[in-house]
Amino acid sequence: MTTDADVQAYAYAGGRLPGHVGDVIVRVREIEKYFGELHVLRGIDMDVWQREAVMVIGRSGSGKTTLLRCINFLEEPTLGTVEVDGLRVEADPLGRRGRRHREEIRQIRLRAGMLFQDFNLFPHMTVLQNCIEAPTRVQGLRRDEAVGIAEKVLDKVGLMDKRDEYPSRLSGGQKQRVAIARALSMEPKVLMFDEPTSALDPELIGEVLRVMEDLAHEGTTMIVVTHEMHFAREAADRVVFMEEGRIVEQGPPEQVLDEPRDPRTQQFLRRFLEIGTVPGHEEEPIHRHGEPRHKHAGEAHSHGG
Amino acid sequence: MSGETVAQADQPTVVERLARAKVRARRLFRFKFFVVWVVLVAGFGVAFWFAGRVDPEFLRVSGPIIILRGVQITILLCLSSIVLATILAVLGALGRLSTNAYINGVASLYVSVVRGTPLLVQILFIYFGLPQLGIVLPAIPAGIIALSFNYGAYMTEIFRAGIQAVPPGQREAAAALGMPEHLIMRRIVLPQAIRIVVPAIGNEFIAMLKDSALVSVIAVQELLWWAQRLGRSALQPMTGLLLAAVVYWILTMAFSLLQERLERRLARSDR
Predict the structure, then answer these.
(1) Which residues of chain A does B195 touch, with a Cβ-Cβ cutoff of 8 Å?
(2) Tens digits of per-residue pLDDT, B186-215?
(3) Cβ–Cβ of B187/A186 closer than 8 Å?
């Protein structure tokens, strides 16, 4: 069954979809978000296909973080609908979350894992406990089942040896990898990354991006808000450029990053060029730091509050 | 040659000498401080001994009773009350943070009424007032209820602050994992809030040690009650009261020390 939206989404993806065409995992329709007077999202339509890695770029305040947070309702959209893996939830414009709406949101969240800029590991739990807490208490897995899954994903992020450590004993890069393992333990349909490397020291960024790249190549469906252009070029199936609450341009990375059509995209990318770390094949190895992080630190919290 | 090297190695550097001087100064300060305490306390004791015409027989016979039986009940009272107060405080804090107007209203009323009335009135009300409604409580349970109720209200605000001090990202991360509200509170927020609040609970416990003296008015046989009763009957009221004061003082100092240690241990594990 192919709907108009599917066709449209295929077009969005620039025909560069991974080998097989699966289902649409995330479908966002006409999302509007106001923070008081501030119009942060101005009608976003977006589809993310199974096995697709979508990287969202744009300057601070363009609404990309808010878009991510609206998809799993950490922010309630003012208008619009979000559909994740077949579960469709309408924004509740009055923002009063009734029992039913809360349960729908929870179901969305079970399908869409989220990674944060500042990791947000549970400090009173060990690495392993962090990874089995939700599977056992929310999904109702037996402890040994949950431990099995957790160990598998911890192994994937290369932190099996830290399974009994507390987060305070880990480096920033290790914390973010544990956070990835924690999200993967829930076996979500899509992983959403909100500037996962922005709070990291430059030398720790590579290890996190490497894990994310592996995930992308394995066909994990993901949406990544990032400033790491090298990473986007390497791991993205599609790059989405946002400005002032709208999607201005999207397509395969080589098109959007190398031959941007929209003047706003061109201007944005030129700024990176001036800093000297623009996307460019011959420049640095891919895992380098994209840009000074102070530029964007705190964007996640710059609106709303 | 080698002798010279050794001599040079023995020669303390400026940094080392400064460090040693600092240690010496600190020791001297502590010594003086200690002397002041010993002299003042001993001086006061001696003066009182002669001026107050202390009867040694009273101290020998009544002292141990006041101290042993009194302290026993005082500690029992305070331990039970702090546990109950903590439970009340958690409930109170959840209520005060609730978006449900009814629950929030009830919790806020509790805090307001209890904090707005004297503890002594509350104690008397529970012991002498409630019987008029047919609720007759023995002295010790009445004392425990009064103290728990009172401290529960004050500690409600402490727990509320503790819960609010847990970074909002923790709640978001848990919510993003699909955890429902009550699980987020019980498994993620409260454990961290309690860690934040432990030192404050220690302070409350120490304050309670002293406030518990008030329940002597409803004949709970705690430290002050024994001191007054035996002191009065031996015509040594001042000695009895002073003894009680000294015991309270020692108790609070001991628990402060304990609390300091606990706090240091919590700081070290730093989770």
Answers:
(1) 124
(2) 999 999 998 899 889 999 999 999 999 999
(3) no
Chain A contacts to B (CB-CB under 8 A): 72, 74, 102, 106-107, 109-110, 113-114, 116, 118, 120-124, 133-134, 137-138, 166-168, 179, 182-183, 186
pLDDT in tens, B29-50: 999 999 999 999 999 989 988 8
Could you tell me which residue, A231 or B4, shows the higher pLDDT? A231
Please report, for residues A134, A230, B56, B162, B174, the alpha-carbon distance to residue B193 in angstroms, rounded to integers and kept in the order given: 20, 41, 51, 5, 15
Question: Given CA atoms A200, A205, A207, A208 in this order, what sign does their dihedral have?
Answer: positive
Phi, psi of A71 (to 5 degrees): -65, -40
Interchain CB contact of B7 with A (< 8 Å): no
Tell if the CB–CB gap between B188 and A122 is shorter than 8 Å: yes
Query: Residue A281 is encoded by which pair of tokens?
Result: 């094949």
Lowest mean pLDDT among A147-151, A239-243, B114-118, B263-267: B263-267
- A179: closest chain B residue by CA: B173
Instruction: Name the closest residue on chain B to residue A193, using Cα atoms.
Output: B176
Task: Give the three-state DSSP class for A195.
Answer: coil
DSSP state of A219: T
The string of pLDDT tens digits covering residues A181-209 is 999 999 999 999 999 999 999 999 999 99
CB neighbour list of residue B87: distance below 8 Å, 6 or more residues apart: B152
B181: closest CA of chain A, how far (Å): 10
Tell whether B266 lies on the interface with A, counting CB pairs under 8 A. Answer: no
Asked if residue A15 has pLDDT above 60, the reply is no
Chain A hits for B167, Cβ within 8 Å: 120
pLDDT at res. A17: 46
What ipTM describes this predicted complex?
0.82
**What confidence score (pLDDT) does residue B9 get?**
62
B172 touches chain A (CB under 8 A): yes
| Interface membership of B191 toward A (CB under 8 Å) | yes
Closest CB to B178: pick one of A123, A138, A167. A138
Say yes or no: B166 contacts chain A, CB-CB below 8 A.
no
B170 has a chain A CB within 8 A of its CB:
yes
The minimal CB distance from B178 to the residues A121, A179, A186 is found for A186
Q: What is the pLDDT of residue B105?
A: 97
Collapse the DSSP code of A46 into the 3-class scheme (helix H, G, I; strand E, B; otherwise coil) and give the result: strand
Q: What mean pLDDT, rounded, does chain A reach?
A: 85
pLDDT at A10 over 80: no
Buried b (16+ CB within 10 A) or exposed e, B30-48: eeeeeeeeeeeeeeeeeee
Between CA A178 and CA A132 the distance in angstroms is 12
Inter-chain residue contact B172 with A118, CB threshold 8 Å: no
Q: Whose structure tokens read 């923790």?
A: B170
% of chain A beyond a pLDDT of 70 = 82
Q: How far is CA A108 from the centre of its chain?
A: 15
Range from A23-37, B52-66, B80-94 carrying the lowest mean pLDDT: B52-66
Residue environment code for B83-99, b if the CB has 16+ CB neighbours within 10 A, otherwise e:
ebbbebbbbbbbbbbee
